[in-house]
Task: inverse folding
């Protein structure tokens, strides 16, 4: 990573996805900082640090790194030195599972921020749960991760008590998108496409159900394959369907190319997607103008939040090569949640890390509550964020511009 040397100095104080070396060992590592030895705690970070989604992954890692540095600088947890260990999953589930095993094996790791992808998280959750190691994702949106496979039937059961997230779920995001497209944008006939992945297919299904409930019509559906580039057959289907809009469940590499190829057919209609496409790379991937394309994203625009001013200034001052991107604020808050849990555990144990620190941190995370970069940070009985704020973005002048922010109540 670009800031490997900086990561070594980081502390677990930031909220979000930090690459800390969390201390899960009973005695912990120790470091002499002049004023006495500190116990070294590692916060693990798992994200796609290379590959097509690296723009998002690097933002996650750097934001957690910033949280750790902040915590160490401010001596947020007396006697504790936070470090970050960032691992690259390349958005591949098997790699995420291998990384989870590696992080569990490092006894200094006391919490993990990540991953980006819901499909990757599905392969990591059980590994973390077996070791009683807390996981806080800043970006996972698939409802089943926290509410069980039967959530759609109204049967809610939390699969793993070690899993938390600072991102709102697709139940919220998909419905929010459908309501905007139908009511605000006035679109009545949508063509739905997904990338067959956990995130994309799930989001597209939730959107479709809500759009139809509102009175809209799904005039066609299709699927694309991740990492392919020729979506001309899908684009032709969209054109022939007479759709006045397209909804895409997937990520920006495929989404940008799909939007481009649809417009090349002469179908001058907007493509809408979830937070997976809300990245500058979606726009740059298209040779055709993306004006009018839409996306939703979790939370309010970080740049417009009074609570994010310090985070933005500190991130810029740190000189990270990559931007904090879509999940930076949520990553910082995830990292900071881990730090606050460690703080509570240490304070309850006479200023020392207990022998069962990992399990105690999991318990403490469920009670965490603080004002973070993205607003109030707290978790419900499923480990889901209590913050249900979302924003719709539109491409205007070659940039994503926020056009509507609101709190969604199911």
Result:
């Amino acid at each position: 990573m670009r800031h490997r040397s900086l990561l070594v100095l980081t502390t677990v104080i930031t909220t979000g996805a930090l690459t800390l070396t969390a201390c899960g060992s009973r005695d912990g590592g120790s470091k002499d900082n002049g004023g006495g030895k500190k116990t070294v705690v590692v916060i693990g970070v798992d994200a796609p640090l290379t590959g097509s989604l690296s723009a998002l992954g690097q933002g996650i890692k750097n934001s957690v790194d910033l949280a750790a540095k902040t915590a160490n600088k401010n001596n947020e947890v007396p006697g504790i030195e936070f470090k970050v260990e960032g691992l690259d999953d390349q958005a591949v589930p098997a790699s995420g599972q291998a990384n989870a095993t590696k992080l569990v094996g490092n006894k200094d790791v006391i919490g993990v921020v990540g991953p980006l992808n819901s499909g990757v998280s599905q392969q990591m959750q059980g590994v973390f749960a077996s070791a009683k190691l807390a996981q806080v994702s800043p970006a996972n949106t698939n409802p089943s991760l926290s509410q069980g496979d039967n959530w759609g039937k109204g049967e809610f059961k939390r699969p793993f008590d070690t899993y938390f997230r600072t991102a709102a779920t697709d139940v919220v995001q998909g419905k929010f998108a459908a309501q905007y497209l139908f009511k605000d944008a006035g679109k009545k006939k949508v063509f739905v496409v997904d990338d067959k992945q956990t995130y994309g297919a799930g989001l597209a299904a939730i959107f479709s159900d809500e759009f139809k409930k509102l009175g809209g019509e799904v005039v066609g559906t299709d699927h694309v394959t991740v990492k392919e580039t020729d979506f001309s057959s899908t684009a032709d289907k969209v054109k022939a369907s007479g759709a006045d809009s397209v909804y895409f469940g997937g990520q920006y590499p495929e989404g940008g190319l799909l939007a481009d190829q649809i417009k090349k057919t002469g179908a001058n209609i907007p493509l809408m997607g979830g937070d997976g496409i809300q990245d500058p790379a979606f726009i740059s991937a298209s040779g055709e103008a993306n004006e009018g394309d839409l996306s939703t994203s979790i939370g309010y625009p970080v740049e417009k939040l009074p609570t994010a001013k310090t985070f933005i200034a500190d991130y810029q001052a740190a000189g990270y090569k990559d931007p904090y991107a879509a999940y930076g604020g949520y990553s910082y808050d995830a990292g900071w949640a881990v730090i606050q849990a460690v703080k509570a555990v240490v304070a309850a144990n006479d200023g020392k890390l207990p022998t069962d620190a990992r399990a105690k941190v999991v318990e403490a995370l469920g009670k965490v509550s603080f004002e973070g970069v993205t607003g109030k940070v707290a978790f419900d009985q499923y480990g889901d964020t209590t913050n249900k704020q979302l924003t719709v973005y539109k491409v205007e002048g070659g940039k994503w511009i926020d056009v509507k922010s609101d709190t969604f109540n199911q």
Remarks:
- Residues 251 and 276 are 4 Å apart (CA to CA).
- Residues 54-73 form the longest helix (20 residues).
